Amino acid sequence: MKSYNVAIMGATGAVGQQMKEQLEKRNFPVRNIVFLASSRSAGQEITFKGETYTVQEAVPESFEGIDIALFSAGGSISEKFAPEAVKRGAVVIDNTSAFRMDKEVPLVVPEVNKADLRLHKGIIANPNCSTIQMVCALQPLKEQYGLSKVIVSTYQAVSGAGVNAINELKKQSADFDNAKHAEASVLPVKSADRHYPIAFNAIPQIDQFTDNGYTYEEMKMINETKKIMHDETLSVAATCVRLPVVTGHSESLYVELDGAPTVEEVRQAIANAPGVELMDDPSNQVYPMPLMAAGLDEVFVGRIRADLDNPRGFHLWVVSDNLVKGAALNSVQIAEALVGEQII
Amino acid sequence: MKSYNVAIMGATGAVGQQMKEQLEKRNFPVRNIVFLASSRSAGQEITFKGETYTVQEAVPESFEGIDIALFSAGGSISEKFAPEAVKRGAVVIDNTSAFRMDKEVPLVVPEVNKADLRLHKGIIANPNCSTIQMVCALQPLKEQYGLSKVIVSTYQAVSGAGVNAINELKKQSADFDNAKHAEASVLPVKSADRHYPIAFNAIPQIDQFTDNGYTYEEMKMINETKKIMHDETLSVAATCVRLPVVTGHSESLYVELDGAPTVEEVRQAIANAPGVELMDDPSNQVYPMPLMAAGLDEVFVGRIRADLDNPRGFHLWVVSDNLVKGAALNSVQIAEALVGEQII
């Protein structure tokens, strides 16, 4: 069986570590692996399939001989090094937002638009975490009934903002009685002027604001969904909110279909979809929750209900681990699809 | 100035205490006050305007001579004692769901439908907490531009489930590393078969499920909103979610208007509305959050955005203290309106 030289760029980050674990767990055909990071993290040790590797500082030459490079070290690092990796013959699977809306770059969730991988010119973008789990739930509905409108409100975990955000939540949570005056220096955005406590709070800002009053996170969900689903006429609206949850994004979705299936037909479409698990039994209080989805691969869908006024309208509750299917797993699935479809 | 004999039924509960504080703070014209509760809580002492009162066990005769009785002791207590109070000449302002959808009972948020108070036959119902703050934000939009559709996803605090839920959140929050296996015995519903941890989680169930897959909390928001706003044709959909927040409900609202105002016009309508405070300056990261709204009277509205596809569509983020405007304050405002409009 053919095997591949793989590099992980940003190997010491939360997503980089998940990428390594997914490669191990899914037994991806790795010949050699290289762990890359900034000079600050270089020298750390990482164990992969029982062998110990030293993290190297990334330089353009790091990508010599690499077949597949998984990037998750921030947008500016991707902008700098992804072209260098491509120049040296690697296919880059980039988990940052640097190239996602580039017309030359496929933006891929394998369950939805695997065929787009054939159009790649060296770089393939991994969508935003909150987009990935949403389109996994939307795709079976679009395929079977047509999809015209999506309104999503998110309930997002702090792990999407990195390990500092997790530590801040942990520290603040320990001081229940001082919640209102807890020190904050990470959320909503590390580089922003103002920081707010996340413990016992809900912050309706993820990423910076754009000029139209939406945040970048909200605009990512809107624009990426249209690109992945190949439908510029699809109406998408998003409100993105950060919660005191460690890992696992939840989404309250309202969808309008072209057809008017029964709730049971919608449930069946979700149950039969790849990568998605139906978890919907109200009479037994069965529905997905982030605390239970953390660490798991699937996109869980429950609380499926018919809108009471619109026969084409449905409500769904979608939960998935934002570091797994929302990031590392999807990147590794893209690599698997490149191999499986003989694109690489 | 005329003054009134007031009773608080459920005086030792979280809302009962807030009712007492609102009566003090707003200087409601109280002649005599009686604090009532079940036999279990009788004998406790409560201070009102510097004087100490002993909580009495409620019996039908407790309401002799009472002008206004504020009830917040659970639906079955209201069903039993409210008619007894009315029989003795009191006007009952009931904070439970017992009579809310009764056609003979006005369901009132003074900023929205104060005129309905004139139709009372002894009992006036205080709406559900999540409904009250929503209709306060919707009313100015309906008045100025007409309102056809509302889709709401809630982010609700545990204080709505009582002091046991607050204690459970506090205990679970102290054990960050054990979140997934935390002991739970209160949420989502005390009497339900299954309980789930709320710390570092989001539970998409508030109250029990009805047969159509919606919870009672969701159906309350849908039905109460139509009743308060006098519009059975208004399309309302709700998804209600419990969060690890102590006090303060947040709501992500999508509304469709009959007209197509600018975002600035929508902001002005909100800014000018009674009981509502505009808190919407994205460039300075100003938006409402539950941790900051706790303990305050207002309904705060921010994140106002035009839908990108529908010129009649707008998104709003609405936050208020569920124990204050969501319960005790609204009940006391109803009492004030009864006095002010000379209905009592």
TrEMBL record, chains A, B:
One Pfam family hit: Semialdhyde_dh
Keyword Repressor (UniProt): no
Catalytic activity: L-aspartate 4-semialdehyde + phosphate + NADP(+) = 4-phospho-L-aspartate + NADPH + H(+)
Annotated active site: C129, H249
EC numbers on record: 1.2.1.11
Tree of life domain: Bacteria
Binding-site residues for substrate, renumbered to this chain: Q156, R242
Binding site for NADP(+): T12, G13, A14, V15, R40, S41, S159, G160, N322
Keyword presence, Ribosomal protein: no
Residue numbers binding phosphate: R100
Pathway(s) it belongs to: Amino-acid biosynthesis; L-threonine biosynthesis; L-threonine from L-aspartate: step 2/5; Amino-acid biosynthesis; L-lysine biosynthesis via DAP pathway; (S)-tetrahydrodipicolinate from L-aspartate: step 2/4; Amino-acid biosynthesis; L-methionine biosynthesis via de novo pathway; L-homoserine from L-aspartate: step 2/3
NCBIfam families hit by this protein: asd_B, PRK14874.1
Purpose: Catalyzes the NADPH-dependent formation of L-aspartate-semialdehyde (L-ASA) by the reductive dephosphorylation of L-aspartyl-4-phosphate.
Record protein name field: Aspartate-semialdehyde dehydrogenase
Classification lineage: Bacteria, Bacillati, Bacillota, Bacilli, Bacillales
